Amino acid sequence: MGINVNRLRVKTLLLVSVITSLSVSFGGNRVLNDLTISEIHFGEMVSLIGKNGAGKSTVLKQMTKLIRFDPHLITLAGKPLVLDEIGYVPQDHRITASISVVELLITTMHVGSSSLFTKADSAEKALVLLYSIGIIHLANKICTELSGGESQMVGLAQAVINKPKVLILDEPTSALDMSNQLKLLEYVKAYTRQYSAYVLMVVHDLNLAIQYSDKVAALHDGRLFTYGEPAHIIDEQLIKDLFSVKSRIIQLDDYPVVVVRS
Predict the structure, then answer these.
(1) What percent of the chain stands above pLDDT 90?
(2) Which CATH number does the domain housing residue 194 bear?
(3) If we measure between CA atoms, which residue out of 61, 28, 50 comes closest to residue 220?
(4) How many domains does the chain have?
């Protein structure tokens, strides 16, 4: 099955990152059609929403592939974006290494290093990170024994351990219970602000997208349907257009809440 990436540009002008003209075909089937997402500012969380097959995960996967195979197409602050500057958590994240979680993080800290010695305070840094995310109890657990939700939380720790400038998260809350969904997204939000990072993530729960995203990119049939602040663009008509679902928007405190209607 062939993959045709017509073109992709991800560039930064001052503090604004832009994705322009992304087209992708699988075996002659156009998945993304001239997709453009503009004005992704540093320190912002941007969520991709849309029905299954709209092209959300394809955007993230193609960005990571092009960084490996055609890095000059993706730049940050005028320089090619390299893998070391990206933290990536794919769908259904699983860790196959039979080592403890803290050993995994120490190993990740030293990827690409030619030294036989670990960096100073590596174990301490790993433990501090696990504590910050709220999963210190997993420190000594063997990675192959982690549940799906635990693996997803550890995957986030692995993605941010080297403090990347860009986080790409593909359905990061899909295997998590309500408590851990909030825990993960609160940490990502704090990380984004602290390190002035760019975050691009796929989210299916519209209420989570509204609460935690600075911007939302709604995709429909491989194209950008609309883009903007979630409280401004997510309404009953958008939900009907994207998902063919009736809904009602209720204002609760500072956030609109989506309620599905029969």
Answers:
(1) 49
(2) 3.40.50.300
(3) 50
(4) 1
pLDDT band at 92 (very low <50, low <70, confident <90, very high): confident
Query: Do the domain assignments include residue 21?
Result: no
Question: In which domain, by residue range, is 98 found?
Answer: 45-260
Per-residue b/e over 93-116, b at no fewer than 16 CB within 10 Å?
bebeeeebbbbbbbbbbeeeeeee
pLDDT score of 31:
65
* Tens digit of each residue's pLDDT (9 = 90 or more) over 55-81: 778 777 777 776 666 656 666 666 777
Residue 262 in this model has a pLDDT that exceeds 60? yes
Contacts of 207 (CB under 8 A, 6+ apart): 255, 257, 258
Nearest 5°: CA angle at 33, between 28 and 39?
150
Residue 164 three-state SS: coil
| CA pair distance 184, 133, nearest whole angstrom | 7
52-62 confidence digits (pLDDT tens): 877 778 777 77
Q: Please state whether beta strands 86-89 and 247-252 pair in parallel, antiparallel, or not at all (unpaired).
A: unpaired
Q: Does the structure show a pLDDT above 90 at 195?
A: yes
What tokens does 74 get?
Answer: 């993706």
CA dihedral 99, 105, 111, 113 (to 10 degrees): -100
Q: Is residue 31 part of a domain?
A: no
DSSP string for 187-241: HHHHHHHHTT-EEEEE---HHHHHHH-SEEEEEETTEEEEEE-HHHH--HHHHHH
Provide mean pLDDT across the span 124-133. 95
